[in-house]
Amino acid sequence: MKSIYLDHAATSPVHPNVIAEMMPVYKEVFGNPSSVHQFGRKARRILDEGRRRIAYGIGANEKEIVFTSGGTEADNLAIIGTARANISKGKHIITTTIEHHATLHAVEYLESQGFEVTYLPVNENGRIHVTDVKDALREDTILVSIMMVNNETGVMQPINEVAELLQGHQAYFHSDIVQAYGLMDINVTSLGVDLMAVSSHKINGPKGIGFLYIREGTILESLQYGGEQERKRRAGTENIPAVKGLQTAVEIIEAERSTYKEKYLHYKELFLQKLKEEEVPFEVNGSEESTIESIVNISFPGMNVETLLTNFDLSGIAASSGSACTAGSVEPSHVLSAMFGSEHPKTTNSVRFSFGFANNEEDIVEAATRVSQVIKRLT
């Protein structure tokens, strides 16, 4: 039985071309990019080229790109670093109830340090209301952090509208764009954000690297102490092979973005159509019109997510949930709780399927068939 991977929103397989570009760097480029000798200069060239190429892809200046260990560190640096550096201007932060835990836990930490956080609600479609941002905004607000695409539901947020609202206000605008970066065309000027977090392993790049876009002039405090790498914003010797891998992954998605979007939307529609043909009872969580092509979050009435994921896995299907599954208990998804209420059945009977590079059309049909068989068996 072939195993089928439908969990690309958690992580994605590394593209063969990325591996091919990284291997020579591992073998031949071991110098420290901060060293002035020829070995260091060779590494520095790869680092500088990667930074320039990544910046170019989002319409940024290379000086505005800071390499990190991934999306979590990028979110932490953006949120905690900005809050600490701007505490003299105020201690109020605005975010949403559906953020990734990299953001939520960062703002919870700041709350423990005396900052005040406003958590914006979402409607049943999983979207915030821009008017809620306007109502929450205060003179002492120093940071607004709203993700572009939710990692559990795939629902897109009105980032452009929020950016327009914040024009002229002192608050910096940060967005976790980890789930959006591979499929949405990102330009920092038109988007209007000041800080933007990206992770490599979501776009078929290597794990252990990401970057934070920091608009020039943004006041931010480093969270690490050591050398003066990344223009004193992130100490530590840079991961040169991973930078090369990330650059290659970025070049691939930029060349293939429209193809990927079309293909993954087809996969999603095919998957849902097959479930309907099998007469499996289900509901899609979040407005299908406002979700990214690669993610669908499905509620299976009368089911339990822990039981579902276990049986899917035994059937060779890899999927996931926002729920934290432990032995004998399931913690409801905080995202679905925000959408429907903490006691709603959807918080514990929903599964996220996410499509990507590891899939083909045959996989999708077979996966939907196996999922249907599991549901029917458990009913």
- Can you tell me the residue ranges where pLDDT is under 50 for at least 5 consecutive residues? none
Number of strands: 14
Name the average pLDDT.
96
Strand order of the largest sheet: 2-8-7-6-5-3-4
Helix tally equals: 12
Total tally of structural domains: 2
CATH class of the largest domain: Alpha Beta
Cofactor: pyridoxal 5'-phosphate
Catalytic activity: (sulfur carrier)-H + L-cysteine = (sulfur carrier)-SH + L-alanine
Keywords: Iron, Iron-sulfur, Metal-binding, Pyridoxal phosphate, Transferase
EC number: 2.8.1.7
What does this entry look like structurally?
The protein has 379 residues and is an alpha/beta fold. The chain has helices spanning 16-28, 38-57, 71-85, 101-112, 130-136, 159-166, 188-191, 229-232, 240-277, 305-314, 334-340, 361-378; strands at 4-5, 65-68, 92-96, 116-120, 141-145, 172-176, 195-199, 210-214, 283-284, 295-299, 317-318, 324-326, 329-331, 350-354. The two termini are 24 Å apart. The chain has 2 domains: 4-12 and 256-378, Aspartate Aminotransferase, domain 1; 16-252, Type I PLP-dependent aspartate aminotransferase-like (Major domain) (Aspartate Aminotransferase, domain 2). The chain contains 12 helices and 14 strands. Belongs to the class-V pyridoxal-phosphate-dependent aminotransferase family. NifS/IscS subfamily. It catalyses: (sulfur carrier)-H + L-cysteine = (sulfur carrier)-SH + L-alanine. Its cofactor is pyridoxal 5'-phosphate. This is cysteine desulfurase.
